[in-house]
Structure formats: C-alpha cells, structure tokens
Amino acid sequence: MFTPLALRFSAPLEAPTEVRVSALPGPGPSAPPSTALDLLEFNKVIEWLAGLTSAPTSAALARALTPASSVMLARARLAALSEGKRLAETRGPWPGPPPCALADELEHDFSQGGLVSPRTLFQVAELLAATARAARYWADVASEAPEAARLSAGLTPDPDLEKRLRASVDAEGQVLDGASPELAGVRKQQGVVRGRLREKLDRYKTLAAEDGTFVTQRNDRFVVAVRADRFERSKGLVHDASASGQTLFVEPFEVCALNNDLAELAARERAEIQRVLRALTDLARAALPALSASEGALAQTDLLWARVRLSRALAATTPALDDPGERFTLVNARHPLLWRDAGGALDREAARARIVPLSLALETPRRVLLVSGPNMGGKTVALKTLGLTALMAQAGLDVAADEGARLPWCALVAADIGDAQSIEAHLSTFAAHLGRLNAMAVASAPSCLFLLDELGSGTDPAEGASLGRALLKHFARTGAWVVATTHLGSLKVLAQEEGAIVNASMALDPETLAPRFELVVGVPGGSHALHIAERLGFHPGVLAEARAELPEAQRSLETLLGDVTRELARAKDAKAQYENAEARARVAAEALEAQRAELADDAKRAGRERLAQVRALEGQVQVLLKDAKTEVRSEEKSRARIQELETRARTLARESDRLVDTPVPSGRPIALAPGATVFVRDLGVTAKVVEGPDSEGRVTLERGTWRIQSKADQLFAPPEAVAGTRAGGRSGAADRAGGRGGVMVPDSEPALAIDVRGLDQEEALRSLDEGLDRAVLSGLDEVRVIHGVGKGILREAIARQLRLHPHVADSRLGGHGEGGRGVTIVRLR
Questions:
Q1: Are 506 and 363 part of one and the same domain?
Q2: What is the pLDDT of residue 534?
Q3: What is the rounded CA–CA span in Å between residue 487 and residue 525?
Q4: Do residues 715 and 684 both lie within one domain?
Q5: Which helix (H) or strand (E) element contains residue 124?
C-alpha cells in the first residue's frame, strides 16, 4: 500500500512546538520516510536557526520548531517576531539564559538520590539571576510587546534562594564560609590551629639547623622533612620517606596534639559541608518546577532572539497569512540557503547581485501554476523556494522576500520532488511518484499546497501527460494551491482550457537561450533540450539526426515558444529601458522642483532680511526721539538736540531706502588689505579694514568714529562692488534669488537692554559683546545689562569685560528704579 509522507498540521494550540508528521492516505506499500520538511530543506533552515541560539535548551526548541498547527498560532508567532524586531532596534538584545541545560542535570541528580554539587548549585544561582533580569525586562516592555512578553510567562524569580546560594557556593565549586555559622566557626578554629602548628614546626626546623628542611603535609597531617641520618626516632612519628630514603617526613611529638585537633576540625568541616549541601539540595529539589519553568521561558525568549537574528541575516520581511487564503504573493523572494551561501548575511548587495529573485502573484480562482522550460533553468529551485517560504511563514519565521508577501494558510503541505524509489519497499521511481500523487489527489482541498516536480515523467510521455492533465484538472476543481513543473508540451495548453491553471516559464536569453533563472508568469517555456545539448558540446552528427527525427508539430511548437521567449525578453528589456528613463526623468523633475523651492525660499529670506533692517532703523529713530525727551534739560539744549536727532533720523531714513534698494551681496570674498572697504555680513554694514587678519582670523574694522573686530569669514565685497561685477541679462531679483551666500542681517530691532540671565559665563560675555556692537552701530548712547543679583560672579565678569571694551565710556550699577545691583548701566562712547 502506497503511503507517501507529507506534512499535516494537527498539534493543539497549547503545544506550539509540536507538529505531527502523518502519512497521506492511499493504496500501496509503504514509501520511504521523506517528508515535505526534508524535501524542501526546511530542516536545514531550522539547523541554521539552532546555531543562532545561545543555550542548549533554546537550540533544542529551535530544532523542534515546525509549522504551527493553526493560523492563529502562526500569526501569534509572527506578531511576537515583529515585536522582537522592534525591541531589538530600540533596546538591543534582551537577557538570555545561562549556557547550560540545568533542569535536566538537576533532575538526573535527584533521580540518583545524591547531593547536588556546589558547582551545579552555583549554576542554579546563575539561572535565578538570569530569571530576575529577564523578568524585569519583560515586565517593562509588556505593554509595547504583548505577544513577545507572553513567551516569558514561565519566569519565576526567587531572590531568597539566589541570595542563599550566592552566600554558600562559588563558581569554582567551593562551599563558602557564609553557608552556615557552624562552618565559618570551624574554619576559623582551623586557621588558629594551623597558625600554632606552623609556629611550632618553624621553631623545630630552626632548631634542627639543617639545609633543605621544610614543612609540608602527609596523610593530612603537618610534618617536617629532615635528613634520615640525623633524625632521632624518639622525637617524632615518621609518616613517609623520599624515594632515595635520604629524607624522612616526620611529625614531631610536640605537634601531634595540634594535628589531632586539626583532623577533628576537618571531620567536623566535612560533616557540616555535607549538611549544608543536603539542605541546599532540598531547596533546589523544591524549586525544580519553578526552575524548569524559568529555564523554559528563557529558552523561548532566546529562540525569539535567534529568529530576529535569522531575519536580519536573510534581509527578510514578515509575511501576512490569510485564512481562507485567496492569494499567493511574493516579491523578490530568495531561497534562504542560496542567500546564505552567497554571503548575504555579510554583504547583502553582493548576494543580491548573485541571486535572481522570484516574484509571483496567484489569486483565486487561478491557483494552479504550471512551470515549463529547459533543464538547468531553475524550475526546481523556484519550486523549492515557494514551498520553503510557505513553511517558514507557517512556522513563525520571516521570509526572504521584499515587503508585501501574502501567503495562504495551508493545513497540508505535500511535495513530490526527486527520485523516491525504494528497493526494500519494491518501489520503482514511477511507482513512488504514483503513491504520492494518489495521496495528494485523495487529500486535495482549498487548504492544501502541493509541489510537483517533473509532472508526468518516469513513464510513457503520452500516458504520463494524460495522467498529469487529469491530475491538474482535479486539483483545479478541488481548489488546491499547486505549483508543478513539466517538460510535456501537451500540458502547456491546459491554461487555455482551464481558467484555474496559469502557465509560467523560466526566462532565457533571447539570443543564446542561456537561462536567466527568472520566473515569467503567463507564458509557457520550451524545453530546448537539443540546443542545450549543443551548448554543452554534444556530438554534432547525433544532434543533426535528432533534429530531423523531431515531429513537425514539435519543431513548430519549439520554434514558436522560442520566438515568444525572444519577443518576451525584448519586451522586458524595452520595459526596463522605459522604466529607467522614466525614473531618470522623475529624478530630474524632483531636482528641478527642489531647486525652484530653494530659489523661492532664498527670495523670501532676502525679503525678510531687508524688512528686518528697515524695522531696526525705524526702531533706532524711536529710541533717539525717546532719549531726546528724557535728556533735554533746557530749551537751548533741547533745540540743539532735536536738530541733531532730526539730522540723524534723515540719515537713517536714507540708509533705510538704500538698504531696501540694495541687492543682496553674493558673498564674493575680497582681499582684506588695510583701507579696503568690506561688507560685514553678520552686522549688515560696510566698513574699512584697519588691520588684520591675525592668526585667529580676526580683523579690525573702522566705521565712522568706532572700531570693532570681526571674523574674516564674515567679510565680503560691498553691495556696489558685487552689483558692478554682474553681467547684463541677470536682473537684481534673480541675483537676490540665487544668492545663497548673501547678507545675514540681524532679524531683531536693537534693544535698549542686554539680558544675560540664565546663561553661563562664556555665553553671557559673548551675548554682551554682540549686544554692545549692535548698540554702537545703532547709535545708542546708553544700554542696560540685566544680569541679576545671584552670587555676584557674573556681575564681576561683566564689569571686567566692560572695562576692557573700546566703546564703553563707563559703567555703573543700577540705582533706585533702575534694577539695583541686578543691572549694570553702560554709557557708550
């Protein structure tokens, strides 16, 4: 009776790591025990996953991982994986288990009825520490990663037991003094006795006055090594002799009592250690269920981390699982093992260049994909890639494909790939194929995925083709998902008869017919067996005779498929060229739009800068008029002051008009020689160079009666000089729009007060210098510096700076109504 094996998911939801592999029904003798997991190399991926874990317990969980028993469980696994990837990005790796399988070791020790060793007890303490760390971590992230946190449900911290074990044993397997007061007391007494022993033995050694005499131990008793010819037997017990007999190891009678005391204390120490280990063993035995649960939960979370690492190594994405499945969609899928062998875990770009990805889109009712084409064209690899991708998704693993993968939930995955003959079962290759195909036909349903390689092969082509046609029609009627490969030409026309069947082929080079290993959906492919034989150097005469023997219909079909292949390849190349041109045009359009937006922003910025200058000048006029009202004390002084202010106001108005009409300097550098006129970009004015630049790039400038320092990188050609260098055909507006290196003018009006409260000393002094420069340029005579009272440190620093400033005539603290000691009044030159 034929009973080929496939994968049927029937484990309960409560046992996510258990999947039963059962035989498909069907008549005939038993087939070889190969399953879909083996045929599709799922187990190799699982072994890769196990190698990414950090403990034997989690590696065992990985090796037991199989496709989930329900779509709900598979989705929960994928949700936990998605959450794990987010956690890995935001928080890094989470706490994992110690690198040992502790629960099994403890259970073995308990079954033997013995005591647990101190080293094993120390490992229990390590497990409890890892449990406490992991419990804190998962409690902290439970709200943002609920599915991943569910894996940690078995964690059971026991801080009291951990503390007891830490005080009792160490990593070297020693029982510590802190294990019990009795043990600590015994060891303290041992230290005292050993000290007295050594004192007496050292004194004995000194009295002996012999070279080579030393203190050592024999039979757990302290002895002295002495020369045999000088030892008096009446003074001690001989415990041992050297190989030559020249040296005796003697216990002097005077230390026998102390050695006896030490032996008694050693016995008490051993007894206490046994008592301590027995007590700790009892504690560990009582805690074993919790320890096992904690170790299991740590293994589950470590397996989740291994799944995250596998996803990263595969450059994988999380698929969507549909139940009932209406579509089978993959974008640029890659076979995981080919990706690994191509070095994808280390260099993704190099691997992408070496591996041709596979894209597929099937949708109900078109569920049967028939792939044809030449040998060595990649049909079997495509078949395995699709099947392995489906198994990985249902096992809760990311798939090696781009975003957008959507797969149907399949309760049964079966594959018929390769030679399955068995001498012991009296099966030929064809008989084994029949057994598997019959079992699939019996089990066929919408929740099945069947993968068939070389359908109809292994027997007479006509009869094999007839069986293949009937089988594909049956699968189409029952709604199963099917991917089959074939060389039989009569199967390729099925797509014209059955709407549920879709043709596909492996792409070939249009000129050389060399394989491109690319799946093309919608077009059947020719086998091109004779052409491939010719390319591989087959006998020319035999090939010529073979071509002559081909039926005319077959030659016509092969010629037609070759023409279709070439036209399809040319169309694809033309499409690729069009898409490349479209992409270049899109990039160029985006660049032009970005440039337009940048020019518009520059124009707006230049307008805002000019408006800020005008407002600053208007503010100066208002300040001057206000000062005039408060400072004038007599009619004569008032008249003179008003005339002076009006003159300055007219000057400022002319300056405002000039600024409005002046084009923005382009930022063209200028030679900084003494006497040169420059534009100071950060102040928005022109000035003459007096001296500089020095080693730090500082330049001394003069404007009217004031001098100030500026940086060389802020000095450019003045506006009139820039305007004179522009050629015709470029308007001022265009210059302003394109001048990204233009004037940076202060965007605030000159203030009567400089507020440095809340700044550190360095920032405060820098703000003071900038405020004084603006006040001088604005024509102010006086300005207030608001620094606050505090401890007076900032006030003293400001006072020192003001004494050194060239434009400060004098300064004083504020008086009544002026801010008091929190304000300094500065009078400018």
A1: yes
A2: 67
A3: 9
A4: yes
A5: helix 118-141
Contacting residues for 128 by C-beta, under 8 A, at least 6 apart: 157, 158, 159, 161, 162, 165, 291, 294
What single-letter DSSP state applies at residue 399? B
Does 525 or 462 have the greater pLDDT score?
Answer: 462
Strands (E), 184-275: 214-218, 221-227, 236-241, 247-252
User: Measured between alpha carbons, how far is 81 from 396 in angstroms, rounded to an integer?
Assistant: 8
Two structure tokens written together for 347? 């260099």
List beta partners, residue 664.
Answer: none
Written as six digits, the tokens of 255 are 């230390």
Same domain, 498 and 445: yes
User: Which residues on adjacent β-strands are paired with residue 252?
Assistant: 236
The structural domain count of the chain equals 4
- Read off the amino acid at residue 114: G
The residue written with tokens 């022109």 in the block is: 686
Is residue 244 domain-resident? yes
Cβ neighbours of residue 618 closer than 8 Å, sequence gap 6 or more: 656, 749
452, containing H or E segment = strand 448-452
Same domain, 823 and 678: no
Which residues fall within 8 angstroms of residue 271, CB to CB, at 6 or more apart?
A: none
Tell me the sheet residues that pair with 323: none
Element (H, E) at 482: strand 481-486
Residues 726 and 813 placed together within one structural domain of the fold: no
| pLDDT tens per residue, range 447-494 | 999 999 888 777 777 788 888 889 999 999 999 999 998 877 778 778
**Reported pTM:** 0.60
pLDDT of residue 313: 93
Looking at the fold, whether 725 and 778 belong to one and the same domain comes out as no
Which residue pairs, CB below 8 angstroms and at least 24 apart, start in 252-259?
Answer: 252/200, 252/201, 252/204, 252/224, 254/200, 254/204, 255/197, 255/200, 255/201, 255/204, 255/222, 258/193, 258/196, 258/197, 258/200, 258/222, 259/197, 259/221, 259/222
Which one of 241, 258, 275 terminates a domain?
A: 258
Q: What is the pLDDT of residues 739-786, one digit of tens each?
A: 333 333 344 445 678 888 888 888 888 888 888 888 877 777 888 888
DSSP assignment of 664-714, as one string?
PP--------TT-EEEETTTTEEEEEEE---TT-EEEEEETTEEEEEEGGG
Assess whether 419 and 371 both reside in one domain: yes
pLDDT tens-digit map of 677-701? 888 776 667 788 888 788 778 888 8
365 cis-preceded (ω within 30 degrees of 0): yes
Domain CATH code at residue 732 = 2.30.30
In a domain, 702, yes or no: yes
530 is a domain residue: yes
In angstroms, rounded to a whole number, what is the distance separating the alpha carbons of residues 238 and 249?
Answer: 6
The pLDDT tens digits for 794-806 are 888 899 888 888 8
Which of residues 717, 747, 777 is at a domain's end? 747
Cβ neighbourhood burial of 257 (10 Å; 0-12, 13-18, 19+): exposed
Are the beta carbons of 215 and 200 closer than 8 angstroms? no
Residues 6 or more apart whose CB falls under 8 angstroms from that of 399 comprise 314, 316, 317, 318, 319, 330, 333, 389, 392, 393, 405, 407
Q: What is the CATH number of the domain that holds 798?
A: 3.30.1370.110
Residue 276 within a domain: no
CA distance linking residue 320 with residue 399, whole number of Å: 10
Task: Supply the range of the domain harboring residue 820.
Answer: 753-828
Strands 677-680 and 782-786: unpaired
Q: CA 787, CA 615: separation in Å to the nearest integer?
A: 27
In this structure, the dihedral spanned by the alpha carbons of residues 719, 725, 731 and 732, taken in order and rounded to 10 degrees, is 0
683 and 788 part of one domain:
no
**Cis peptide leading into residue 324 (ω within 30°):** yes
C-beta of residue 802 within 8 angstroms of C-beta of residue 765:
no
**pLDDT score, position 13:** 27
